[in-house]
Amino acid sequence: EVQLVDSGGGLVQPGGSLRLSCAASGFTFSSYEMNWVRQTPGKGLEWISFISSSGKTIYYADSVKGRFTISRDNGKNSLSLQMNSLRAEDTAVYYCASAITLVAGPFDSWGQGTLVTVSS
Amino acid sequence: AIQMTQSPSSLSASVGDRVTITCRASQVIRNDLGWYQQKPGKAPKLLIYAASSRQSGVPSRFSGSGSGTDFTLTISSLQPEDFATYYCLQDYDYPRTFGQGTKLEIK
User: Fold this and answer.
1) Mutate to test the interface with A, among B49, B52, B103 (most CBs of A within 10 A)
2) What is the per-residue pLDDT across B70-79, written as a single tens digit (0 to 9) for each?
3) CB nearest to A105's CB, from B36, B50, B97
4) Residue A61 zone, left/alpha/beta (φ > 0; ψ -120 to 50; rest)
5) B78 and B84 in contact (C-beta within 8 Å)?
């Protein structure tokens, strides 16, 4: 069974840093592209970052470019998101997501989400 | 970035009703569109991919149509468990973009 487990969220002050993780199991992690998607409280969904299966290709949304860094460890079946210079508007539930059963296409597998709150 | 305009933003309906939600892309995206259902406190669940293909396990009352720039999600006969928020997502290009969501409420 495909499983993605998000962790690392918490309360952080503006300007602070946080590192999110996504533990993958039930599939060959090293073969799949991965993404981070966030959802602000009471609002919609926003894609924020992509990493290719090898880690060589990376994309970011403009809203996080230069502040967030996506990475993966294929040996540990793990995806990470290093978030620096956090702002109040980064407060959201963060999900890792991927197209696993579909291989390509919309995200069909999601973590359960981890809440990041940026507040003083 | 491709903009996805979803309407309506909210919708009140009754069990048994037929409802339609639309998404319009700001440029042609072929049929690279998915539809999601999200319930409070849960991750989105994929219902439809490639604009009209039902994901495994999704009831047949959910259907999708469209190609190019205009897409539709139809629920043929609403069930109590269908009251949720629905989103479209274009997977034609990065950055991936979602519609603003449609909250489907019980009338």
Assistant:
1) B49
2) 999 999 999 9
3) B50
4) beta
5) no
